[in-house]
Design a protein that fits this description.
Blueprint: E1 3-5, E2 18-19, H1 34-45, E3 51-56, H2 59-62, H3 64-68, E4 74-79, H4 86-107, H5 114-133, H6 140-151, E5 172-176, H7 184-191, E6 195-199, H8 205-208, H9 219-228, H10 239-252, E7 257-263, H11 267-282, E8 287-292, H12 298-311
Parallel strand pairs: 1-2, 1-3, 3-4, 5-6, 5-7, 7-8
Helix pairs in contact: 4-9
């Protein structure tokens, strides 16, 4: 099975999934974010993909079942609670269990290794967390590129690589965004003499910032608790906790600037940006906003980043 996953809310603990990074297919929904539009294209057009699993967490994701209704592939949408209390954990656990049952029924498989997979994920995330603690010593582009390469492999083939060492810079920046599919932006940032010293990306800090999954007890509840009590996404409307967590790290690392990367027409991140900028302005920390669109010119992004580096 090759199930294409969208969002860090999808549990890797049940079965192998391919984490969607980027696909240069036809854009089917121009009024929603490019990332989701490309995801639709790959599910619909890539014959090697036989299934799709995605959250019900934002307007773009909510419409996905309608687009996939006649594609003939395995389709499952997970309901994501906005709360973090025990009732939310129990609800999400039941959704994860239903997801597992649907996979077993569709593919004629019996899944018995959830605990073993959870242990591997705990170990992998712990290794990424150790790298992140020293991220200022490494090439951030190399670090994130390795994670992207890892997330499209089966779990038993995933390994955490040591990134290349990089030269230090006093111009430290913090990256804000969802899933950074265009890694060339990172190359541009580093070539401009900026040091990426932290982030809140779903494939980096939010990937490992949750507590490890407990193996004993109800494994579904334990997985649900780990995921929904993770560092939150703006799609869950918990902006205060996001700001608190990020600004504690920004202050601790003496960050000099923030690069805020969003997809066009992504309302949760658009709103988060207004909150972010207000707090950054109050602390006299410059912010560069990059809005990724279908027609974004890389030269334009390069010029904006170089100008931002000059400001810092």
């Amino acid at each position: 099975m090759k199930i294409l996953s969208l969002s860090g809310f999808i549990p890797e603990h049940i079965t192998d999934i391919i984490r969607f990074t980027q696909y240069s297919g036809s854009h089917r929904i121009s009024h929603y974010c490019r990332y989701v539009a490309n995801y639709i294209s790959q599910v619909m057009d890539d014959s090697s993909i036989d299934g799709a699993v995605f959250p019900r967490s934002c307007d773009s994701c909510r419409v996905l079942p309608d687009y996939f209704s006649e594609c003939g592939k395995f389709i499952f949408q997970l309901n994501i609670p906005a709360r973090q209390d025990e009732a939310a954990v129990e609800f999400f656990a039941s959704c994860i269990k239903k997801y597992k049952e649907e996979i077993e029924q569709y593919y004629g498989a019996v899944i018995t290794n959830i605990a073993e997979r959870s242990e591997r994920i705990n170990e992998r995330n712990s290794k990424i967390a150790m790298l992140y603690e020293n991220i200022e010593d490494f090439s951030y582009y190399n670090y994130l590129h390795n994670i992207h390469d890892m997330l499209i492999k089966p779990l038993n083939e995933q390994s955490v690589f040591m990134p290349e060492k990089s030269s230090k810079s006093s111009k430290s920046v913090f990256i804000v965004g969802s899933f950074l599919s265009d890694l060339s932006i990172l190359n541009t940032i580093e070539k401009a003499g900026l040091l990426i010293a932290g982030d809140n990306l779903s494939e980096s800090k939010r990937l490992f910032s949750a507590s490890s999954v407990e193996i004993s007890g109800d494994i579904y509840n334990n997985i649900a608790k780990s995921i929904i009590k993770n560092r939150l996404s703006p799609t869950q409307n918990n902006f205060a906790n996001i700001l608190k967590s990020d600004f504690e790290e920004i202050k601790y690392k003496c960050i000099r600037g923030v690069i805020f990367i969003t997809q066009k027409n992504c309302e949760p991140y658009d709103y988060l940006y207004t909150r972010y900028k207000k707090m950054l302005d109050e602390q006299s920390i410059p912010v560069l906003r990059l809005v990724l669109t279908d027609t974004m010119n890389n030269k334009r992004a390069e010029m904006e980043i170089e100008s931002f580096a000059d400001i810092l």
